[in-house]
Amino acid sequence: MVAQTVLYVVIAAPSAVCLCLIGIGTLAVCMILAIRPWDGNVSRDYSWSVTSPYPMFWAGTWMARAASYIQMLKPGPLRAIEIATAYVMSQVLFMIVNLGIPDLLLSGPRTADDLAANIGPHVHPDRLARILDFAAAVGMVNRKKISGNARKDRKAAATPHANGFATAAAAAAADGCRGADAPASDGAMSQLKVGLLEARSSKTVLAVDPSDQDLAAAGMPSSSSSGRGPLYVYSLSATSACLTSESPVCCADMVKMFEDRSQEFACLSEAMRDGKIPFEVFSGGKLFWQHIAENPSAAKTFDLAMAQINNLGGKAVAAKYPFNKFETVIDVAGGVGGFLREIMIRHKKPCGVLFDQQGQIERAEKLWAHDTIYQPHAHRVQLVAGDVFDVSTIPPPPSSSSGKVAYILRNILHDWPDADCLSILQSIRQCVTATDASRVKLLVIEPTSMETPCKNIYPHRLMSDLLMLAAFGDAKERNKQQFEALFGATGWKLTKITPSNGIFLILEAVPV
């Protein structure tokens, strides 16, 4: 009997391990094919990740976390230097967005010279090419070498945005290419160089410097990208495609907001040493919300970024949670209503109430009245101005019906320390009378600092917690016990925690 058991284990165990590895490998291949990280198609909206079964979402996040663990296997000194220089990557991304490079690549691949000419008269093509080479190495854009191959160069010549390079490449291909993979002859390469110089000199916004002409006459590489050796064209990758204005999951404004936020993290060491808030050190003593109120540009970027957060999880919440069971959905401190709009799009039963400060509501009125995405649902949404700390201004449950009502706090409590969170929760609770208590539910939608559910995105939740620390000091992402304490002290009871296909958790509470 023992021998049979041992034999069974010896035979079955490796088979089980092999089957598990095959299953994991198959799942990995399927997820990669679904994500298609090499695909720069701007029309992709990743809707499958929002509405897919939760186990599939979990598997995708597991793969992402496994990849991050692989990064940690590098030697300690190398890993430390990579982390220390990570700002280079983020600054390059900021530059790509600020210069509008993703939109310039919408119409097809372009050379660095072409991009520089379209960005502005003072852009150095060579410097831009070096930055884009790095961006391509880390997946921000795609890069393709123009090799001198006749077939490839003819194809490049047909590219409308290859500009002068297309003509030069065609001449090189026609004159000097000997066979499918043969390099161009000296004569062809000379034509290629001349064609590139002529193309550059024909641009009114980017004339050839005299020094470049002298170098070209001497047969030496010029300071332009065309003289750097191999020639490349750059195109959209999956990353930069999401930064174009035509992408349904555009997150360019979020990138701009994080560029603003990066400045406060530069003050992190000083703030920790002196017991201050990083943002106040950066701003010279101003509070975060004071800075937003006094800077229209920062306020606009912040509003647009908050709307785009829907692409990182807001849509997943709107798609997964059964909002149709409510007759009224009240989005408290809901900004201009980006999340409420998603609810209205996906759920036809509830009516919405958008509640925020006067300035936000004024901006929201313009969107809901004129924007082609908001306007079709405006007849179901009421806009109310007020203060979340003033109970007299918070909309009560509608008295005209007995349907269920949801108060939503999405990404609100983590902006405030405990004392202010207690005030917010108490204000909403006081709006709910004993008669209405049975039909009211509070939905708190935040990343939280909980390890579960979906432990795979726990590091992202901790990063969100640091963003709160840097901006507000004592504001934070909270765990289950901390939420239970806040709810219990303000007349609410936590009843359920629901994960979404994203970073957000949905915490349900009822009046007690």
How far is the N terminus from the C terminus? Answer: 61 Å
Shape: globular
Q: Would you report the number of β strands?
A: 9
Helix content: 40-55%
| Discrete helix count | 24
Strand content: 5-15%
Kindly report the average pLDDT value: 81
Going by helix content, strand content and strand pairing, the class is alpha/beta
Largest sheet, if any? 7 strands, mixed
As residue ranges, the low-confidence spans are 153-210
Determine Rg (CA atoms, Å).
28 Å
Sequence of strands across the biggest β-sheet: 5-4-3-6-7-9-8
Report on this structure.
This protein has 512 residues and is α/β, with parallel strands linked by helices. It contains 24 helices and 9 strands. Helix 14 (252-265) crosses helix 18 and helix 17 packs across helix 18 (296-308).
